[in-house]
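User: Teach me something about this protein's shape.
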Amino acid sequence: MPRAPTTSDPFNAIAEPRRREILTLLADIERPVNDIAEALEMGQPSVSKHLRVLLEVGLVDVRRDGRQAFYRTNPAQIRAVHEWTKRFEQYWQHQLLRVKARAESRAQERVHADRANTESKRTPPTK
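Assistant: First, the predicted structure itself:
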């Protein structure tokens, strides 16, 4: 099955790492293209290309002020992506709890082993 074009699907659009970096940068404040390019150490034409894709799928909005364009994330469209990924949160929470339990168990085993080692050094050998 052919992959959907990046210009029609937010998930395909954010599959590209540079676009995710742009979205992350725009999460806090709107910015013009040149600021985005400088912050991400990318060329302005490349940033403009990525912004065009993000605009077409609705993940960013643009505000014009004279000749300058300011880009910002579109919270409604980001929310749709978040809602979909949220379905998997329970899975990750479960996995994180398992990792935490395993790490705590191993830490306890090390503490007990260290105590046993320390006590064996203090106890004189029996004849």
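Now, about its shape. Residues 11 and 81 are 7 Å apart (CA to CA). The radius of gyration is 26 Å. If you'd like, I can walk through any region in more detail.
User: That's plenty for now, thanks!
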